[in-house]
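Recap slide: DED domain-containing protein, sequence and predicted structure.
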Amino acid sequence: MEVKTLDFRVLLIQLSNQLSNDSREGLHFVIGPMVPRKIRDDCTPTGTLHLLEFLFDRTLISDKNFDYLICAFRKISCYDAVERLQEFKQIQKQFTLSTTSTESTILNESIQSIEVDKIGNVSNLVYIIKEGFSHGVKSQDIQDRSFGDANDLMLSYTDRCVGVELDWSDMYLTSIRFFYSNGRSSIVHHPSNDNQLNRLPHFSNNFTLDSNEEINRVIFYKRANLTQTTDVIVGIQFRTTKGRKSDLFGSNNGRFTVESFAGYKFLCANGQYNNDKRIGMLQFVWLKPTSLNEKIDQSPFYVLDTCSFNYTSNMYNETRHATGIESSWYDFKHEFDRIGDSCGSGASYYRTISVEGPLLFAVIKDKYVFYHDAGKWAQYRSANNVTFGVLKLTSLHPRRSVRTSN
């Protein structure tokens, strides 16, 4: 293994030395959001080595899996580097991965057909595996391609997700890749007609997890496709055990759905790429370390972000307090017959669950509060002390008993 690692690092040095100035700057720019600005801006040969070392440290690449780097070189049209890395990957296929430790028992293919929680005992720990909901619809088209990270990447109970990268068009998500602590990453299946895909407006972003940080909540935005028979995933966002949230990948112009389970953390994903250039289905698999003596809570619930603020009541000219739970403008329009445009780029939407306050409101930059009236958004000039939290609920749409005026 040491010889293999050394050979791979020598290959990276060779590739770095052969990069033109334009290619080197392009590589730093493409990977830039993942690394500190000091490393990103140092487009010297030494700076590129520091960039690669950072990717090693964050387990985004390793001598066993460097798909992330291949993808980066492909994005800057550096096909010589892509070819050499792919040749190295072919050589690696001569090696057989074997795992003997009971602490890293491989998740077998039965994970694909779990109907109830499954329990495995590893080193005196009980691991409960739970399959989440299927978002979107799995197609039976022979040209569609499915993936399952547990089997494809030989994941173990002790592996964890360290990052995620998504691509999307202005219509829907086109690809998703999870990076794991074993150095492997999700297999991305692109449809056969790539030329049509490339003509669509294309966007890409990534989210890197810190050490000892895991995904514990996922927000989906979905809407019906043109045939009104299936849901299309148009946006996705992640929440973590450290209270962080990723940027929104895609659009929030869809029905708001949240997935989370008490004490569970994201383990891996299943999904399918449809031949019409989009992600057709996503399903997350969750893991909970526990003991045999612990009572397993099976009751459904939702962990939702909340936003609270103080404002001055126009009617009573006194300070009031409002609290809302996260939602989407798409839901507001369909449930409350609202018209007009969204509040703006980067806005978060909330439906009020407190006795007082507007029925719905939006927040921009975590401090500017807006309410919707007569088809337009207007800023709450008196809004202050804007705070955020989380709330565990049994419904995505709780009702409040009384609603007062603004």
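The two ends are 66 Å apart (CA to CA).
The chain has a mean pLDDT of 79.
(End of recap.)
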